[in-house]
Amino acid sequence: MAPNVGDYIDHAEERRDVYYAARDVDYMITTCPSWWWDRGNSDQYLRSTECTISVVEEDRTYKAAYRVATDSIRFFKDEYRGWSWRDIDEAKPVIFVAPPDNANRCFTPRGNSPCGTLLDIMDIFFEEMQPLVAPNWRPWATIFRGLNIEDKLRILESLPPLFRPSQDFPVQSHLLIIVGIDRADNPKTRAQVMQFLQVVEKMFVANRKGKVLLFTDSPWSGLSDMVKDPSCVVDLKKRYERSTESSDEA
């Protein structure tokens, strides 16, 4: 019996390792957020020098974010001609942060509470960021997961700018994708979510090191009030959907 392509895609996406999926020739992204694919939107976005933060609401949040991350990694592999997949893995042009859930678990989640979700997001963020963290700060990774939320935030706020292993390092702009930040946000955790987002803003936007996509499964407003520079917040999905509609009308 021929393998079911849909089943293979689902299995690939449950592995969580977007870099493994990107180099897997059998993993074909047959469906993805339409706005990402339309009229070269993704290439335009990834090549642009803008450093922004965008909230992207999708029904199948994890799958949409996973496919955008995988497609972006493949884009960078094509852009950096001569680079091996190992080079790409180490350069981390895309940082994918998705807390575990019932379907996809890289480790046991702390539960469905907003605080537990935020702790998981911060743990995975620090783990995925390791190649871009200055070497003298990397030992924190061995104890980071066991720290309380205040100590985690204190370490993240103290991190120096993203580490560049050499002067000829080609990655000038990274893409950070975070899934489920809306599930971490409620009145009790709002201040900590804001603190974390301002760390992200400083690392990637203020320091001109990249772009940020926050994938949510429900409407999530108020981001402009949570960052230090509201002008960095862009509704990317609406921008491209509007562009598509204008092109169709023309």
Descriptive key words:
250 residues; alpha/beta; four-stranded parallel beta sheet; 10 helices; 9% strand
Strand order of the largest sheet: 1-4-3-2
Spans of at least 5 consecutive residues whose pLDDT stays below 50 are 1-12, 102-109
Compute the gyration radius: what is it? 18 Å
Shape assignment: globular
* Helix-strand makeup class: alpha/beta
Portion of residues in helices?
40-55%
Mean pLDDT: 85
Name the quaternary structure. single chain
> Beta-strand percentage?
5-15%
Explain what this protein looks like in three dimensions.
Helix content is 44%, strand content 9%. The protein is α/β, with parallel strands linked by helices. Strands 1-4-3-2 form a four-stranded parallel beta sheet, with helices on both faces. Helix 7 packs parallel to helix 8 (149-158). Mean pLDDT is 85; it is low at 1-12 and 102-109.
Secondary structure: elements and pairs:
Elements lengths: L4 H10 L3 H6 L10 H4 L3 H7 L5 E5 L3 H19 L5 H7 L2 E4 L16 H15 L20 H10 L15 E6 L10 H17 L3 E7 L19 H14 L1
Parallel strand pairs: 1-4, 2-3, 3-4
Helix pairs in contact: 7-8, 8-9
